[in-house]
Amino acid sequence: MRVFVTGASGSIGSVVVPELIAAGHEVLGLVRSDAAASAVSAAGGMPHHGDLTDLDSLRAGVAQADGVINLAFGNDWSNLEPCIDEEARAVQTFAAALSGSGKPFVHAGLTPMVPGHVSTEEDPDTTNGPVGGRGHNSHAVLALADQGVRSSVVRLPRSVHQRGSQYGFCSVLITAAQKTGVSAYVGDGTQRWPAVNRLDAAQLFRIALEDAAPGTVLHAVADTGDTMRSLAEAIGGALSVPVESVSADDFGVIGRLFALDMPSSSALTRKRFDWEPAHPSLIADLAAGGYPDLG
């Protein structure tokens, strides 16, 4: 099928596009720049100029496609609310364009934070706190199952990684260690972070596009939860710097999230879709070092 992919040249999109093409799909990739257009073309896709704020470009993309994968998000952690509002308007636009079509619509969400236990696909999205708005956006996507859309949400952990390029939340830890000469963790460091290699995540987005029933939640989780201290120790070892506990405030606004325990499971996703992560773990990628300058 022809698939309209937003964020096609981004950290997730840049691996989802070749995953789709290798499986025989055509890709129409939303791009904001000539450089992004060149990257999508080089991967075998067809660039479609626009962005999440250009709602006409989103409607035009849907009109040319047999399905949609929405990966784009602003990721400005110092000013999250506008990014979440932008995502909400894009979801509303996709909803109107896809209603009654029967087409698949796969949306990138976030694994929930459920105090006291490991979150699963059956837990509701987190709808409070700094990223709560994204949970509301995921709810809106799932609700399209009642409007003739084969909608699904692939929930991503905070650390989507690949050695030498992407580390998710751990990019903040790496950057801080590079700048300060100390690999830091918050509090006692026992809070757990789930993770997935972005190549494994890309495969799951394709699977959702092809096979997920309307209203399905999938978890792209390979590692249920590494402690923040173990992540800081892997970074410290790779950079040969000391490892120390710091206040959440040392990481600014995002530090509030760093202090939370957020383990997550993908057991139901693995069983339902025969998905089995096969690429290196986050700890392995961090311990290997060779980090780019992420500052």
From TrEMBL:
State the Gene3D superfamilies in the record: NAD(P)-binding Rossmann-like Domain (3.40.50.720)
Enumerate the residue ranges of region (Disordered): 117-137
InterPro entries per record: Epimerase_deHydtase, NAD(P)-bd_dom_sf, NAD(P)-dependent_oxidoreduct
Q: Name one Pfam family in it.
A: Epimerase
Which parts of the sequence belong to the NAD-dependent epimerase/dehydratase domain? Answer: 3-213
Q: What is this protein called?
A: SDR family oxidoreductase
Species assigned in the record: Streptomyces kaempferi
